[in-house]
Specification:
The structure is a homoheptamer. Chain A is mainly beta. Chain A is built from no helices and eight strands. Chain A has one domain: GroES chaperonin (10 Kd Chaperonin, Protein Cpn10, Chain O).
Chain lengths: 95, 95, 95, 95, 95, 95, 95
C-alpha cells in the first residue's frame, strides 16, 4: 500500500532525533518551537496555478528536511510513522 | 437517488477503520488529529477559475483517499453513510 | 410578488425532511452539522468576474439541493417558507 | 440636500414592514436573522475593478429590495429614515 | 503647515452637527453607529493598482461627506480639528 | 553604521512633539489614537509587484510624516531613536 | 551538514547583542518589541510568483540584518545557534 499526496503535500518518514548524532550533531533549541527531521518518501503533483500549470515543489523524494513540529497529519502504515504535510511547512533541506 | 456535488466538492463512502486490516495495516496515530479513509463515489465539476475554465480535481470515482477527520458534512442515504467535502480536505490517495 | 436574488444568490423552497421518505430515504446524521433539502425557485445572475463577465451558477430552477443548515436568510411569502443563500453554500444536487 | 453614495454603496428609503400587507404579504421568519425591505433612492458609481472600469451595480433607483437587518448605516434627512449600505448586503429585488 | 495624505487617504475638516440645521436638517439616528460630516481639505494620490497606475479617488477637495464615526485618525492643527481617513470609509457625498 | 530598510519599509527619526510648537502648532487629540511625527532618514526599494517591478514608495528621505503611534519597531543607534515601519503605516506628509 | 532554506526563507547566525558594542553601538529600546541582529548564512530560491518565476530575495549571504525578536525557528548545529525565518520578517540590513 502506497500513499500519493495531493496538491502541494508531501509524505515524510519521521527521523528520530535521538538516533541522529552521527554525521553532524543536530540539536534543536529546547525552549522554542522545535523543528523536526524527516525524509521525503512521496511528493504531490503541486498546486494548480492561475495559468492552469502546476507549481513545482522544491523538495524531491530522498531529501532530508526540517519541518515545524506541529504541522501536518501523522499516519502509521505497516508499523512505520509517516507525516503528510504541505511543502509550505518545510523549513529547509539538510545536506 | 444520486448526489451530484458542486464546485470542488466530492462525495465519499466512509470506510470503517476496524474492518481495514487486510492488505496493509493502516493505524492512525491516536494522540493526533486522525485522518480517515473513504472511497470516492462522486466528484464535482471543479471550481471556475479566473480564466472561466474549471480547475480539474485530483481525485476520481473509485479512488481510496485519506481525509482529515472533522472535515466535510455527513449524510446517510439508503442506510449508507456518505461524506460531502472539498477536495482540498483530501490529504492523499491510497493505492 | 416574486424575489429576484442578486449576485450568486439563489432562492430555495425549503423541503420538510419528515415528508421526505418516498423515493430514496434521506436521513442526515443527527450528531453532526445537518444538511437540509430545498428546491431552487430562483437564481441570481452570478457574480461579476475580473473579466467583467458573470460567473455561471451551477444550479438551475427546479434543482433539488442539499445545503448547510445554518446558511442563508429565511423569508416567508404568501405563507411559504423560502431561503435566500449563496450558491457557494449549496453542497450538492440530488437527483 | 441629496446623498450621493460612493463605490458600491446605495441609499435606501426604509419600508416599514407593518404597512406592508397589501399586494402580497411579506412576513420575515421571526426566529432567524430578519431581512428588511427598502426602496433604492440613490446608487453609487460602482467599485473600480482591476481593469480600471467600474463594476456595474445590480440594482437601480426605484427597485424594492430585501437586505440583512443589521447591515449598513442609518441616517435621517428631512425627517425620513435612510440607510446607506453596500450592494453586496442586498439579498434580492422584490417585484 | 499643510498635510498631504498618502495612498487613498483624505483629510477632512470635521463639521459640527449642532451648527448643521440650516439648508436641510441632518439628524443621525442616535441608536445606531452614527455617520458624521466633514469637508474634504486634501486628497491622496490614490493607491497604486496592479497595473502600476493610481486608482482614482471618488472625492475631491471641497466635497462634503458622511463618514463612519470611529474611522480614521484625528489631528489638531492651528486649533482646527482634522481627520485623516481612507476614502473607503467615506459613505457618501452630500450636496 | 547605517540601516537599509527592506521592501516597503522606511526608517524614521522620531520627532519629539514637545519641541514641536514653532512654525504651526501640531497638537494631536489626546482622547484618540495619536499620530506622531518623524523625519524619513531611509527608504526601502519597495515591494516587488506581480509584474516583477518594484512598487514606488510615496515618501522620500527628508520628508516629515505623521504615523500611527503603535506601528513599527523602535531601535536606538548611537543614542538616537529610530523607527522602522511600513510605508502603509504613514498617514500623511507634513509640509 | 548544511541547511538549504526553502521558498523565501533565509538562515541567520544569531549575533549576540552584548558583544556588539564595537563599530557603532546598537541598543534596542527595551520597552518595545526588540529587533535582533543576525548574519545571513544561506538564502532560499525565493517564492514562485504567478508568472512562474522566482521572486528575488532582498538579502544575500554575508548581510547583517535586523529581524523581529519572536520571528522564525531556532536550530542548533555543531553548537552554533541558527535561525530560519522568512525574508519578510527581516526589517533592515545594517552596514
Amino acid at each position: 500500500m502506497t500513499i500519493k499526496p495531493l496538491g502541494d503535500r508531501i509524505v515524510l518518514k519521521v527521523i528520530d532525533d535521538v538516533q541522529q548524532t552521527q554525521g553532524g550533531i543536530f540539536i534543536p533549541d529546547s525552549a522554542k518551537e522545535k523543528p523536526q527531521k524527516g525524509e521525503v518518501v512521496a511528493v504531490g503533483p503541486g498546486k494548480t496555478m492561475d495559468s492552469g500549470e502546476r507549481e513545482p515543489l522544491d523538495v524531491k523524494v530522498g531529501d532530508k528536511v526540517l519541518y515545524a513540529k506541529y504541522s501536518g497529519t501523522d499516519v502509521k502504515m505497516d508499523g512505520v510513522e509517516y507525516k503528510i504535510l504541505s511543502v509550505k511547512d518545510v523549513l529547509a533541506i539538510i545536506e
